[in-house]
Amino acid sequence: MEKLEWSEDFELGSEPIDSEHKKLIELVACFEKELHSSDAADLDLEKMTQLAQELVATAITHLSDEELLIDNLSFMPPLEKMVHKQEHAEWRERLLKEVSSLLSSPSDLERRARLSNGILIARNFWDKHFQKVDTRLRIFIGQQKVLTQSH
Questions:
Q1: What is the pLDDT of residues 24-36, one digit of tens each?
Q2: Three-class secondary structure assignment of 33-55
Q3: Is residue 81 part of a domain?
């Protein structure tokens, strides 16, 4: 899997959203580094669990903030917006379920497996979501800024 790193290509032009994107990428990168650089016996599961909880909390906040931005910009038609919010709800549910399973895992081996699965969920969301929505949103915000500056 290719290392996820922040790039200016990810910037939407909305400082709060861009900051959240950067934080999410940093958390995923830290999480992946820890997970893949440690032997099973050396993995600090408490640290990893805290990272997973922070990642989920940041992701949930980000999804809500993005929904507000989209509402305020009138970026999407109502039906598409409804579908988008449903996708966010499904991602929130998956992430919360994974962290709940992680916290209740009886063995270190199972916790490690849950951590690996959680990071795959986060990466999958980033890849699909960024390509599907955020790229369009970046173009829309850029167009709005051009229109605002020209008046």
A1: 999 988 888 887 7
A2: HHHHHCCCCCCCHHHHHHHHHHH
A3: yes
